[in-house]
Design a protein that fits this description.
heterotrimer, A mainly alpha (270), B mainly alpha (135), C mainly alpha (78), B: mainly alpha, Helix Hairpins, C: 78 residues, mainly alpha, 83% helix, 0% strand, flat
Chain lengths: 270, 135, 78
């Protein structure tokens, strides 16, 4: 490791650099690119939320890249936390599996049953209205993932439908690219907003062309992805192993969990 | 000290604190916490770069800004929108920070998955136990 | 610049400093979540409601939960 003195000197140099940066200050009026987006945003896109029109339409390719990076990181987590061989035991390093923890209290169970429906409805509302009010696909997806987390906390042995979630995620990502290709076919540039769907009247739900369609797809994809991430991190990847190995490995997975349960019982008497 | 300078200074201090935590602690989880604090500081810094004092959020929901031929149904009046350009904050850095926050949580989750695997391998979170990558 | 801005900035920096030096990792994780929430308030004050919602839902809630899951799976940091 680098010595403490070198670290402190490095941090002091960075602090001096930041001192000079702090005297620069912030800008005083909109630049030319931002000015164009603000002035033409409603005219070209007919949506009220300018940040949404920048994220989805003017910088739509960056959003496609971001969705790809999120997918890659969740796939990386599922790969890193998978089970390897029968003998190596739990990939998570804990003695007890997820089912051996104490069951959730009455408050959490009843509250989860009451709250999951309104939470998912609220998340869907946020990403459907992304072009009108503050919000959008990422925020709505995070709220939906929080609802799924509440379900997982209330009942630790609950099996999430991983097949359905992976289908929703893949089809949403695929739909995003298909929408971009539609823009290419109709209007001449990838992810273009002209000509495919009518722009409609301003400040209505069905307006702004392709922007609500893209945000619904992003919301579904981010929601199912973050829910799968939370499930994989809590369970240590045996669900991911069952999904990826299909029927051939399912019996192996079941046998592994029995072996682990026996070792857990033996180790629990310590 | 103006509002913009206050936000800028606190963002830079947050980046420094996160960097110090990531460099000077030996516990793997504390290193990841340092990176998370640094991420938050960088997001605050980028969002402050688009801040213009005295202006409001870039959401155009006032129909008086769009009064033109045909009202709400026709295309918005371009001259009325020049007024909006003097009243809203810069929307481009906000779009960048939106992307950065989502990617930040993905990268943090991947780092924590590695920490969990390393703990299962060695049984400790002290970084001096993982010397096999050093030359 | 109103007094709540100065108060929230001071709380944020104090929370970050304490998160670095405190002995228990659980307290450090909760304090990082608190810092994210303060930053969400600052985003709201500078006219960025989209960013504030994203930071509050993803940075303060989901990121803290992911840290707590990792903490539980490493037995509280041996």
């Amino acid at each position: 490791m680098i010595g403490r003195a070198v670290t402190v000197v490095l941090l002091l140099c960075v602090a001096v650099l930041f001192w000079y940066l702090a005297t620069v200050g912030t800008q005083t009026e909109l630049g030319s690119v931002s000015g164009h987006y603000v002035e033409r945003g409603v005219v070209e896109n007919r949506g009220s939320n300018l940040v949404t029109s920048v994220v989805v339409n003017y910088r739509g390719l960056d959003t496609l890249g971001e969705v790809t990076v999120l997918f890659l990181s969740v796939a990386g987590v599922a790969f890193v936390l998978r089970r390897r061989r029968r003998g190596e035991g739990d990939a998570g390093g804990t003695d007890r599996g997820p089912g051996a923890a104490a069951p959730a209290s009455e408050l959490v169970q009843t509250g989860a049953r009451l709250l999951v429906g309104p939470m998912i409805l609220y998340g869907v509302y946020i990403f459907v209205h992304g072009h009108l009010t503050p919000g959008g696909g990422f925020q709505g997806g995070a709220v939906v993932a929080s609802a799924v987390l509440l379900l997982l906390l209330a009942d630790r042995k609950r099996e999430l439908p991983h097949g359905l979630m992976s289908w929703v995620e893949s089809l949403s990502g695929f739909g995003f690219v298909v929408v971009g290709l539609l823009g290419l076919a109709v209007a001449g540039s990838f992810l273009a907003n002209r000509g495919v769907l009518p722009l409609g009247t301003w400040n209505r739900l069905f307006s702004a062309g392709l922007i609500p369609v893209i945000y619904v797809l992003i919301g579904l994809k981010v929601g199912s992805e973050l829910a799968a991430l939370l499930d994989v991190m809590m369970r240590g990847g045996e669900q991911a192993a069952a999904v990826s190995h299909g029927d051939a490995g399912a019996s192996t997975v079941r046998h592994e969990s029995r072996v682990d349960r026996e070792s857990r019982e033996r180790g629990g008497s310590r | 000290m103006t509002q913009g300078t206050l936000y800028l200074a606190s963002a830079l201090i947050l980046i420094l604190i996160g960097l110090a935590c990531a460099l000077m602690r030996r516990n793997l989880l504390r290193m990841v916490l340092g990176f998370a604090i640094m991420d938050t500081g960088v997001h605050l810094l980028i969002a402050t770069a688009g801040f213009l004092p005295g202006r409001t959020a870039p959401i155009i929901d006032d129909p008086s800004l769009l009064a033109g031929a045909g009202g709400r149904t026709a295309a918005a009046d371009p001259s009325a929108l020049l007024v909006a350009a003097e009243r809203v904050v810069d929307p481009v850095p906000q779009a960048l920070v939106l992307t950065a926050i989502v990617i930040g949580v993905g990268v943090t989750a991947l780092m924590l998955a590695y920490v969990v695997r390393l703990f299962a391998r060695e049984g400790t979170l002290d970084v001096s136990a993982f010397r096999r990558l050093k030359w | 610049m109103i007094w709540t801005d100065v108060l929230v900035c001071a709380l944020m920096i104090a929370g970050a400093v304490v998160a670095v030096v405190v002995r228990s990792i659980l307290s450090a994780v909760i304090l990082v979540g608190v810092v994210s929430l303060m930053v969400a308030y600052l985003f709201l004050r500078m006219g960025a409601p989209d960013v504030a919602m994203t930071e509050a839902s993803i940075g303060a809630a989901l990121s803290t939960v992911i840290f707590l899951i990792a903490l539980a799976r490493t037995r509280g940091g041996a």
